[in-house]
Amino acid sequence: MTEDKSVEPEVYDSLDGQVALVTGATRGIGAAIAAALAERGAVVYAGARDTGDVTADDQRPVRLDVTAGRTVRAAVDRVAEETGRLDVLVNNAGIFQECNTLDAMSMDTFDRTLAVNLRGPTLVTKHALSLLLEREGGRVVNVSSDLGQFTGGQMGGAYPAYRISKVGLGGLTAYLHGEYASAGLIANAASPGWVRTDMGGPNANRSPAEGADTPAWLARFRPGSPGGRFWKDREPTAW
Ligand SMILES: NC(=O)c1ccc[n+]([C@@H]2O[C@H](COP(=O)([O-])OP(=O)(O)OC[C@H]3O[C@@H](n4cnc5c(N)ncnc54)[C@H](OP(=O)(O)O)[C@@H]3O)[C@@H](O)[C@H]2O)c1
Q: Is 159 assigned a catalytic role?
């Protein structure tokens, strides 16, 4: 499937006055996305299961476990109370559990992976939507993976739970676009590539800042920019 590479979205240079919530912001790609948005001037709520793990002093740590609805609601309520707005939601939190092929996969691995990687973003987005929709051009950025790319003929090669969770995240992205684009929401997904984090390991070819580049860029899209797409290296790619 060929993609139109000629898309040139208009992005905000400055996020002064805007508010972002990033899940899984304690380390890895999420910490780098949060840092990039704070550097652009956004008020950044750094979602963390343990807020003591957020070390950046230009962010607001907020307790948020994507599998615990109470913490999700409380986090969004706090953003609303303190700032009265939410411009950007980055669904970054994710887990990767080793598993070979489906016949050898434990259903515990499947359930846990889907709970964090797919149910989590769905739940956070559900609670954040009303704030995001208060202004034209609220953005949802879903951090997916090359392993979630299913039209490019790359499925297969182990990790079924993770792959299926990220395919589902693409489905959530497409659904959000189909349902809410007309209300001004810009929902996109991105692959960060293979990144040197606890998840990606030391041999990965990208730094966390490099992995954060496209998600953080999508978070700067201005109203009218494209949505419902899957991006890598700032270019649309096949789902
Ligand atoms: N690294 C790669 O090569 C790569 C490639 C493609 C896609 N990705 C995607 O990029 C995203 C970030 O990955 P990463 O490499 O930065 O992973 P990481 O270093 O393992 O960090 C994962 C983050 O997710 C958080 N998290 C895990 N479970 C959570 C939960 N239930 N609620 C809230 N937060 C939770 C962790 O918080 P704690 O500190 O509390 O554990 C941590 O902040 C993931 O969605 C991943 O699938 C990564």
A: no
Helix (H, G, I), strand (E, B) or coil at 74: helix
Q: How does pLDDT run across 63-119, given as a tens digit for each residue?
A: 999 999 999 999 999 999 999 999 999 999 999 999 999 999 999 999 999 999 999
Tokens of 188: 């996109």
- 43: closest CA among 20, 12, 63, 13? 20
Question: Is the pTM above the cut of 0.85?
Answer: yes
Which ligand 1 atom is at minimum distance from the Cα of 65? 32
The preferred substitution site among 55, 73, 197 for testing ligand 1, maximizing ligand atoms within 8 Å of CB, is 197
Domain that holds residue 146: 19-237
Q: Per the domain annotation, does 8 fall within a domain?
A: no
- Ligand 1 site, residue 202, Cβ cutoff 6 A: no
Instruction: Provide the number of structural domains found in the chain.
Output: 1
